[in-house]
Amino acid sequence: MVKIGDSLNPIRFERISGESVVVTSLAGEWSVVSASEFERLVAGTPVDFDLRRELVAKQILRSGNDLFDQHMLATKMAFRYRNIAAMCGLHIFVVTLRCEHSCHYCQVSRRTSNRTEFDMGSDVAVAAIDRVFESPSDSLKIEFQGGEPLLNFDLIEFVVRQATSRAHSEGRRVDFVIASNLALLDDRIIEFAREFNVYFSTSLDGPQDLHNKARPRPGGDSYERAVAGIARIQHELGRDRVSALMTTGTESLKQGKSIIDLYVSLGLREIFLRQMSPFGFAARRGRYRRSGGAKWIYFYLGGLDYIIELNRSGNQLAELTAASYLRKMLRNDIGGYVDLMSPTGAGLATLVYNYDGDVYMSDEGRMLREMGDKSFCLGDVRAKSFSQLLSDPTLQRAVSDSFTWSSTSCHRCAFEPFCGADPVYHQATQSRFAGYKPISDFCGRTKAIVPELMRRYREDAFCHDLFESWADL
Amino acid sequence: MIPLVGEILQYPDSVDLSGLWRVTRERGEERWLERGSRVNSPRLALIDWDAQDVDSQFVRVGRELKHLEDDDVIAFSADLKRVSVLWRNKSSANTILLTERCDNYCVMCSQPPKDADDSYLLSQAKDLVSTLKAVKAEFPIIGITGGEPTLYGQGFVDLLSQIARDLPEFEVHVLSNGRRFADTAFCESMKHVITDRLVIGIPIYGSIAEDHDEVVGAKGAFFETVIGIHNLVEMGALVEIRVVLQRALVGRLGGIADFVSRNLPGTIQVALMGLELMGFARSNFEKVWVDPLDYASELVAATRHLAANGCNPRIYNHQLCVLAPEIRQYAVSSISDWKREFDVVCSECAVTNECGGFFTSSTRGISTGITPLSSMTDRGSVPVDLLSRTTTKLSEPSRPSRRLTVTSMPHSS
Asked: Nearest CB to A272: which of B309, B392, B410?
């Protein structure tokens, strides 16, 4: 009869190849053991002394002092979740839904650019600033989203000035980011960004043809404008002041290398190989499915290896999907990426103030709203305080329902500590917060990527050091 | 080598020499001894072995104490044969030995434990603190070591309180095995002495109990030490982890670095220390000594891992020529001035100013890799295959920062 070894603490495990099994402790530490060693562990028979030392040190095997093991696991668990109560630092202002682009995969359901009823008014902005400063976080960040936020630049100016003086008088720190396609970047915006230390985050899907097809605008020059904008910010404000991210469409799948080469040639030091999200127009036209699942994983892993080789030959380029996982794999930390947190970062780590005053638990939450699903709406920013928003039953239900420790199949997954809850994704794809994980692309992505990261980290000394540096981005 | 103990050649019979005496120098000429903390006490001339007798009452000391200077503090032994130097005002490495008793029995202990009652050392330490109130300290830093200082319990806490009250500008560095701090009631009693000027250095010799307990010769020590560190960190104390590198440890240094980075969060730095060949380290030489060249790659990997995890590694008691260039930035020239020396070949080295040199006690245990370096990037004797394997830069040594930043996309902040 097979018995679970007397010497084991509670563990989770997963076969990651024919010959190896990853074993994860309750506190998120992991070891990779051979299948035969794993058999011995489970049977309770002695294992190699060095392996035993490693597993005892991680509280996977019992040390002989159960109180000590409990103390260690509890302490590390407490440390892992240490900042959760004071986390909500990211505040997204949707200053307009208008956009001069007409991207097929638009995830936010943009409106045409001459209809000002889709702009945020100053009454909403004033109330939202109050909510920002009611939050307990010591690193506040305000991110301007759209539509194309530069179409309502007057309001951005207003918010930045107000928040800056408020932060100054309260002795706090606030950072600003504008998520823009940069097509409308001009002298006034640059000078303002210089004065108030504003950062830019932009979209760059790949080479000219690919980018311009995916992101049509009048004149068909989205790529030219984005590239010129990036260069201008790098040159006039500094290289670290602009970052770019790409969205994988069906056309991108075969062009991984040229997309990555473009980022290197533009002097960008980070790239975010990102699967399209099932929101807005992306969901409506089935585009999400055509570039997702196994196709995207294949695209991603090829891209990751290419980026590693670029680093090996002296280029400095970090990949941010990997970085988000690695932070959670290599550090005792739940990470800083909202989508990859459990309990979910939506609501707990970020709030979104929509142009019309509605508050959402995440950017994707308001994208769902534009599709008619108000699951993540917490009410009007002018009517509720920060603590009322955070204690809203909607938020609490989304947080507790999706929490992976108590979510079926996540609770026994060896990769749970490295993954996230993402109730918004699962609401969008399955109309439930937790989601049925065997059919979830979100789950599939973690299960495919994490073992690949583990393998490279363990087998390749260069990757080991490179990944250590990515974990701290 | 500056001797901290010397001979008494002549002393006045009529004067009670007990207690502490402070050296003063008048008009840059004669040295005098004054009672540590008492006002209007008799004073004695302090004269060298070869000086002529003087008119006033005097103490004549051996040539090894020629270095005694203004504001140094000394004590006479009970049999009036020896002088101990308790404070050298020009030194930044003054240390109080609080007891020779210890509840660990480390295989490489440089100060082997004795079981006799030596609580006079605690009284003497308290006297020294009172005496130092009258001294303008050049380096307001004091170490407290043992044995195990916390064996005094409340007496140890009282000493720290007295330092905090009488010498508020002093930095205090305590060396302890940490076991006593597992007692939460004891920790609680320390609460009022925890400041950002108090650092407690505690050794870790393994990632599991068997390994650590074997090195420290005490079963159950590991559990107490680790929980003690957690208790201190939780109270806001500054804790430094110390790992003395020795034969049994170097093969599992990676595991120790991994354990420390995961399990001891909030500690301020990790000191990776070369052996000081004194006491048991000398008598157990074959068992504990290992040439730093033989663990050069393990040391690089552990240092990298600790640095990458924000654990602020520091390398002590290693000569720069036996460290891979990429980790020399973590080396601290730490050997106390009174026991630091250099080898003959070092006269040709360009970086001795940055180097810690050798313990004076080193007669054996000199690495075969000692060689003059032309610069900080000269690899010396360190094998080529250890040299930097990636272009990734190690972070600069710094206080650990564990700030959590939240982003909607994972770009750096």
From this structure: B410
